[in-house]
Specification:
The protein is of the alpha/beta class and about 260 residues long. The chain has six helices and eleven strands.
Amino acid sequence: MQPLLRFVHISDTHISPDPDYHRKWSAHSAQEGARALVRELNALPFTPDFVLHTGDVAYDPVPDAYETCRDILGEIRYPVYYLAGNHDDPAALQRVLLQREDDVLPFHYTFEVNGVVFACVDSNGPVEPPRGYVSDAQLTWLEGICRANDKRPMVVAVHHNALPVDVPWLDEYMPMTNAEDFHAALLPARGRLRGVFHGHVHQNTETLRDGILYSSVLSSWCQFHAWPGMTHTTADTGAEPGYNIVTLTPDQTFIRRCRFAV
Ligand SMILES: [Fe+2]
């Protein structure tokens, strides 16, 4: 098996400039979790092509938040691609963390690595957070990519969970509210779409519809439960944080779930 590429999926670092910031949901602070994550990634026994951070980089966009993010996440030894979550300020994220003079709003972009095209979608449209929404302009942009006469394998990255999963607090409180439109935009590319990678839910999940795999990852800070019928956000306080290794070959997507101690 010859891989096209390997990347690390991380999400929801929720870094605060307050080193003791942890609320009641985790045994460790967000800073401690993020620093442990960086140590883990830098000690991997192979070299990933890059790291994909699917948002909620900071918690919340208070002054100095992204300077702290840059101090911690800037230690990662590999290229990192970021999305903005509902807790982020996408302009400050780009200006301070990515040190760009001109920010892009909405914060969406594509990039290509080893012949695989990645489309990073901004799901922070006009809706009451923590819900997400993909604006008409974002959908048009995404449809153009998915309808293109393009044979390259493709990956989509987005912050919010999309499809319903029989967990009321995820389906009603947290979701991308126009998920059906988002999924419909992806359908023309399903033959070459190798996965939709998202964060926001602070747990490992997989959803498969119409041959399209949606995959989420643990947070480096706190994890949430998602039992069927659960109506309120409930921390899984004993759970370890984690990250995922994603290996793409010409005809396969392999996701390795990893956990670590802080
Ligand atoms: Fe989020």
